[in-house]
Design goal:
mainly alpha; 2 domains; 7 helices
Length: about 160
């Protein structure tokens, strides 16, 4: 029987982030499925869920971003509606309103396009797993760069 390779701290961190993402964002709630999908024991998964309060984070991560986006869209729409109600010829924003619209647009764009650490880890893990099926040597190189990138994102 082949001996199991011991994972490095960086590899464990990547798998932990992937498990957290699957649990908090993708709705994978069984420890068995999480363990199988990320290659970590069910015991470790259970420990992570309990210690880091993933149950609470799952609700918070999904709701906070969604609620904030809805709030920003509502503000944007309300301001545009108020401007439009002024009537023909006066239905354009003044400089203060234009500035507010610009800031709301930037905030919406940031929330819609911002990539979290969990999302970055998920994409990197998918890339590494794909590379492993094609070329193990190159997958190891990708893993090295992925670890470096994640360490940079964490700082």
């Amino acid at each position: 029987m082949a001996e199991k390779k011991r994972l490095s701290k960086a590899e464990i961190a990547v798998r932990k982030e992937l498990a957290k993402n699957l649990f908090t964002k993708d709705g994978v709630t069984t420890q068995k499925e999480l363990a199988e999908r990320v290659g970590i024991s069910e015991k470790s998964i259970g420990k992570w869920i309990a210690e880091e309060k993933w149950e609470t984070q799952r609700a918070g991560i999904l709701m906070t971003r969604e609620v904030e986006l809805k709030r920003l869209y509502k503000q944007f729409t309300n301001l545009n509606d108020a401007i439009e109600k002024r009537g023909k010829g006066a239905d354009f924003p003044d400089s203060k309103e234009a500035d507010i619209l610009k800031k709301l647009t930037a905030s919406i764009r940031d929330l819609e396009t911002e990539v979290s650490l969990q999302e970055a880890c998920e994409v990197l893990m998918k890339l590494i797993n794909f590379a492993r099926t094609e070329n193990l040597t190159e997958a190891k190189i990708i893993m090295k760069w992925a670890d470096l990138m994640i360490k940079t994102l964490v700082k």
